[in-house]
Amino acid sequence: MIDITIIGAGVMGAAVAYYLSRYNCQVVVLEKENDVAEGTSIANSGIVHSGHDPKPGTLKAKFNVEGNRMYPDLCAHLHVLFKQTGAFVVAVNEEEKQILQVLKEQALDRQIPCQEMDGEAARQIEPNLSDDVIWALSLPTTGVVDPWEITLGMMEEAVLNGCELRLNEKVVAITERPDFYEVTSENNGQISKLQTRYLINCTGVYGDDVYRLLEPELDFFITPRKGQYFVLDNTIAPLVGRPIYPVPSTVGKGILAIPSIHENVLLGPDSEEIKDKENVDTDRARLAFIRQALTKTVKNIPFDKIIRSFAGLRPTPSTGDFIIREEEKHPRFIQVSGIESPGLTAAPAIGKYIADEIIAAATKYGLKTNYQNRRKPLRLAGLSIDEKNKYVQADARFGRIICRCESVSEGEIIDCIHRPVGARTVKAVKKRARPGAGRCQGGFCEPRVVEILARELGISPMEVMFDSQRSPIFVGETKQAKGE
Amino acid sequence: MNTVELVIIGGGSAGMAAACGAYEAGVRDILILERDKELGGILLQCIHNGFGLHYYKEELSGPEYAERWEKKIEEYGIAYRLDTMVLDITADKVITYTNTVEGYTKVRAKAIVLAMGCRERTRGAIHIPGFRPAGVWTAGTAQRYLNMEGYLVGRRIFILGSGDIGLIMARRMTLEGAEVLGVAEIMPYSNGLPRNIQQCLRDFEIPLYLSHTVTNVFGKDRVSGIEISQVNQKFEPIAGTEKRFDCDTLLLSVGLIPETQLGQNAGVLLSPKTKGALVNDINETETEGIFSCGNVLHVHDVVDFVSEEGLHTGKNAAAYLQNKLMRAEEANVSAGAGIGYVLPQRVRKTLAEAVTFSFRVTDVKKNAELLVKVDGKVVKSVKKRQMIPAEMERITLKAEELNDLQSELVLEIRED
User: Which terminus of chain A is more solvent-facing, meaning fewer CB atoms within 10 Å of its CB: N or C?
Assistant: First the structure.
């Protein structure tokens, strides 16, 4: 009997696992994909919002504000890059300026630092703000984080402390027994069952579908809401130094310019309710709309420096708020559904709340005495030559650069493969060490990454996957290689 | 910090030729820095024939062509480091590089030749919409997998872009037993060399869809299909013209871009047209003592011309190091009507030697006349039956034809 099973290894599942891993209890995470952070967590804005935006009295407001306050220490503890950039919400007319007043009141009510300024003053700080901007609300506690890295950081430390991550396990049935749940999962046609006292649903856009495996009468549903983005090359000076929000509308926080933690600027997202929960394609019309919409708030956008576009899905709940509760009808089934924006910011606060106030409070699990901290990922960027050479002396492969765009050495790639929750795929390596994230988009480094993965994992290059288990790079060997 | 007379960044065709040019002009302290495991650059993955027709008057494969230059490098005893990545160059010519033997190392050069080649334009840069599964590669990456690693990336292939690498790959994949369903080209004409259109597409009956582009990519895990659409004169897809192809791979041959990042770190100024450095007639950039040649300067279609450009650049880098360089005021060189770009962008006045100019036309020109104007006066005209953007053209002006040059030399096309 397992104590706690978490379904989903996105940022939410990782946060719950991380805060639970401090307690003496057995935790299993079931993830249907081939890596952590593959759903909503793989494609979003990477902003740690201040908490000014959600409606008063909502769980979104509560956990956003708490999460924002937790981020600096959490990231320092996990060795995850975090930058408190601050943010501007900008108004281009009197009507929008009125809305800024409302946001400011909301921020002050929540003890969120903020400051108003006119367009001129804002442009002094952010020269690429549109000339139409007349007023700005500055929110200095806003930050940026890499959503892949924070998910991985929390999951890795959880695994280090005994949590078990099972990838490629898709939950297909949940049966309620008197004192436990029986969870049936499928991995490539192979069926497994486990018994668990607690079951926590952190499945993003699938939150309603997974709950429906247990409960036919749902009081909520989840709509996938697609958002598309452009990514700018990080070799040019960042367009903006902090996220620039337009004033919010009914469909969300609007289209932003966001300096990512890796100094790429993200442009987006738009907002489109769709039906298919697997549909993360981009389309021309939407991307054109983003370009158009952005010119309202930002100028001098170097559209010729776009290196990629992508789309992600937000799990939008029919209730309008996060759904975080132990189900009354199903004791010990904990719902963590509808975690759309500001979910990335709120995740640590929600994870801690579930671990401490729902589970530990009810079970009296004691705290671990032998808790392990995660080892710092090896990252040579930013080190001096002498410091880098210390790594090279220990292992010469730190002297070989595999990704020239992002300056990633072979040593760093090997490290990310052999850590807990290690990279198994080309995409997983990109998510951890960044080869392929630069302007050549893997054109140069991908063959080398495939070779390193095959060698380090002891598999044939034919078995190396791009991302999912169904995404091989190669379909065969050449005639010459086969000796024909 | 060590000092080296001449550091050459890149050991492909341009870098090897520049090294040989400098050596033959008397420089001995030369260091080539190459990121791959052997010299030769992109030639090593080009196992097809067609290299060396101009320079050697014979038809070689890429590796054979590279080998001839490697032999010269060995024969001259020119130093090189392999498996070595250059990370930074400063305007005062301090180069930071790294490899597994020396670690992160700085070296000071008296002169530098930038010969880093080019990179392929990606899917992201041209905003192909759709899903982002495995199965979308630039043609050059797929070529590397195929010719150097021995792996086939797909069995049913569609190719976007009719650049030469895409055409060569269409043939190569076909010979490996894959089915190439078609090639789409956004322009109304092909971007590859005519001989490649014939030998790689027509000979295999692979359809070429001109004025078409890829408008969707299907498949969540691995490509399951793509959609192409016809485009209008503004290159926008025309609704209702969509065609779907079921395939497992989309290869992109949609342009090459000089890999100039290192030069930019050193303050080298770029041409918006070529995306390579702005240079004078000895291929010196606007940063003194930093030279540039080959595909990092402008994208070539024939390696023989890269070698010639490299030799010329190396020879002049040597003259610079030996203080034999004749400095003079420089006149501008401009692309006039019908010319996409012309190189060099500046030429020294009162020059006692011939200068070869490289250029490309903006679009297909038939029975047109190339005019060379010196300060507004036509000094030379050449009739050409056909010029196409895919083929780099060259014209050499004798010293006496440049005698009167004061402020500007213009190349332009006169059409009937």
Answer: C
Give the amino acid at A169.
E
This complex has an ipTM of: 0.95
Q: Do B221 and A306 touch (CB under 8 A)?
A: no
pLDDT in tens, A293-338: 999 999 999 999 999 999 999 999 999 999 999 999 999 999 999 9
A354 and A298 in a common domain: no
Using the Cβ of B119 and the Cβ atoms of chain A, whether some distance falls under 8 Å is answered with: yes
Residue matched to tokens 């060997």: A477
Enumerate residues 190 to 249 of chain A having a beta carbon within 8 A of any beta carbon in chain B.
231, 235
pLDDT digits (tens, 9 = 90+) for A161-204: 999 999 999 999 999 999 999 999 999 999 999 999 999 999 99
Number of domains in chain B: 3
Shortest distance between the Cα of A88 and any Cα of chain B, in A, equals 28
Domain that holds residue B284: 1-120+255-325
**B108 shares a domain with B143:** no
Residue A251 is predicted with a pLDDT of 65
SS3 of B283-343: the string is CECCCCCEEECHHHCCCCCCHHHHHHHHHHHHHHHHHHHCCCCCCCCEEEEEECCCEEEEE
Structure tokens at B2: 């060590």
Record the pTM: 0.96
| DSSP letter, residue A249 | B
Same domain, B146 and B250: yes
Across the interface, whether the CB atoms of A392 and B103 are under 8 A apart is answered yes
DSSP string, B38-71: STTGGGGG--SEEESTTTTSS-EEHHHHHHHHHH
Residue A165 sits in a domain of what CATH number?
3.50.50.60
Assigned token pair, B375: 């300060």
B27-80 pLDDT, tens per residue? 999 999 999 999 999 999 999 999 999 999 999 999 999 999 999 999 999 999
Q: For B194-206, what is the mean pLDDT?
A: 95
Q: Tell whether A389 is within 8 A of chain B (Cβ).
A: yes
pLDDT tens per residue across span A25-58: 999 999 999 999 999 999 999 999 999 999 999 9
Instruction: Using a CB–CB cutoff of 8 Å, tell me whether B90 touches chain A.
Output: no
Domain of residue A455 covers 385-463
B145 has a chain A CB within 8 A of its CB: yes
First vs last Cα of chain B: how many Å apart?
61
Q: C-alpha distances in angstroms, B51 versus A156, B42, B56, B64?
A: 52, 12, 9, 9
Closest in B83, B125, B153 to A475, CB measured: B153
Active site residue A49: yes
A207 in Cβ contact with A315 (< 8 Å): yes
For residue B260, give how far its alpha carbon lies from the nearest alpha carbon of chain A (Å). 11
pLDDT band at B192 (very low <50, low <70, confident <90, very high): confident
